[in-house]
Structure to design on (215 residues):
């Protein structure tokens, strides 16, 4: 069992990619370990023993997170199979929590819930900010905590704006707080008049995103 090759084999949601060289193994006994790719997109190093043994490791940890989510989400009729369709559970969770801040999920219709989630999960504007913020986090650049995606009412609630998904958008926390209860038109005018330019504003983030693709 020691010398076997399990490259490409599947263990639950994990697929073994490559054996970790002996000098890079962190366990004191230097036992064999594999770099694995999880269905959720994460890569993790797992001991061979944990993949093949009796108490099998089946995911990077996302299954446990999903179980915890299902136990506490308060969304009726949501199951693992629904969650599995998203290649990025963390991103799903982020959107879920953001919407939960606005809408009470206890009585929400399942189709309505799915519409909210999927509307943002695949949306260019949300993904641009989310990726921007996440990349800064990966660089440990805490200066950019202000770039965290924050849900905004396009027509402010104080001016009759609804919770319909079409009236919701993600901005950075910074931009959302600056916009306050302005309409989009007023906010864009304000930015233009004041020649305000910021890394945190959606137009700059979208521009950066486009440049990344072009390079
Ligand atoms: Zn995973």
């Amino acid at each position: 069992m020691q010398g076997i090759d399990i490259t490409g084999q599947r263990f639950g949601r994990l697929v073994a990619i490559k054996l970790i060289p002996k000098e890079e193994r962190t366990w004191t006994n230097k036992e064999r370990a594999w770099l694995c790719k999880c269905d959720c997109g994460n890569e993790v190093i797992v001991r061979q023993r944990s993949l093949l043994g009796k108490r099998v490791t089946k995911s990077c940890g996302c299954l446990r997170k999903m179980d915890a989510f299902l136990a506490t989400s308060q969304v009726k009729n949501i199951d693992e199979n629904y969650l599995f369709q998203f290649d990025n559970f963390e991103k799903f969770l982020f959107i879920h929590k953001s919407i939960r801040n606005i809408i009470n999920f206890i009585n929400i219709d399942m189709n309505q819930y799915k519409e909210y989630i999927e509307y943002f999960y695949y949306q260019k504007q949300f993904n641009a900010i989310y990726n921007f913020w996440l990349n800064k986090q990966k660089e440990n650049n805490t200066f950019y905590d202000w770039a965290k995606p924050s849900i905004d009412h396009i027509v402010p609630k104080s001016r009759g704006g609804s919770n319909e998904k079409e009236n919701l958008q993600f901005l950075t926390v910074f931009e959302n707080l600056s916009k306050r209860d302005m309409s989009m038109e007023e906010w864009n005018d304000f930015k233009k008049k004041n020649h305000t330019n910021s890394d945190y504003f959606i137009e700059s983030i979208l521009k950066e995103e486009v440049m990344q693709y072009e390079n």
About this structure: The pocket of zinc ion is lined by residues 13, 38, 40, 42, 59-60, 62 (CB under 6 Å). Residues 124-138 form the longest helix (15 residues).
